Amino acid sequence: MIEKLILFWGWTRNEKSYQNLINTAPPNWQIQSIPYEDLVPNGNTAKLNQAILEFLAKRQLDKVNLAGHSLGGALALLFAHDHPEKVKGLFLLDSEGIPGHETITEMFKNFYLSHTSHARKKIIENTKAILRIIKKPILHLRLAQFAHNIDIQRQAQELKTPTVIIWGEKDRIVPLWQGQKLHELIPNSKFLILKDMDHDWVIYNPEKFWQNIR
Length: 214
Description:
Blueprint: E1 3-8, H1 19-23, E2 29-34, H2 36-39, H3 48-58, E3 64-69, H4 71-82, E4 87-93, H5 104-116, H6 123-135, H7 137-149, H8 153-158, E5 163-168, H9 176-185, E6 190-194, H10 201-204, H11 207-213
C-alpha cells in the first residue's frame, strides 16, 4: 500500500533542506512538499488552508499524511484541524504552536545559537537559511512573528487525526516542554523523545523519522 506524505517545512527551509528525508523514504512512501512560502508570498497565513486544498486537488491527492517541522508543524496541525477529512495521520516534529516565554528577540537569538552550534557538515544549510532571510526579510519576519504568536492549544484539544509527536531532547528553539504540552492536549497522541537530538534532527538524521513511524 502506497502511503502519501505531505511535508510542511520549517521556517527559512525549503525542499532541498529535507532532501535526505526524501531520499531515505521507504519504497511505499511518496513525499511531496507544501511550498507555503510560495502560496503566501506576503507572509499572510490566513488564506493558507484554502491554498493547500487547491494544491491537493490539483494533484488529485485525497487522504494524506502530514508531517510538519517547526513552523510547518503548526501549519500542518491547523490544516488537519480544519480539514480532518483530508488527513490520514499527522506527524509533528519539534512543532511551533505552544506559546513560550521568550521575546521575539530571544527567539532570534536562540535560532542563531542553534544554527551556529551545529557540526561543520551543517554549515552550508544553515548559511542558506540565513541567506533566505536576507533575500526575503519581510516574508520571514512575518512568518517569525506568526510562529512566535500562534497559539494552537484549542485546535490541539479538538484534533481528531491520529497524531505522532517526535521531539529532539536538546531542542533550544522549541523546548521539550512544549512538545510535552502538545502531547497532553492532543487526544490519544503518541510522544517520542529523541535522545541528544536538537531542533533540526529531521534534516540531519532523517532515519530517526522513518524508524519511528513504521
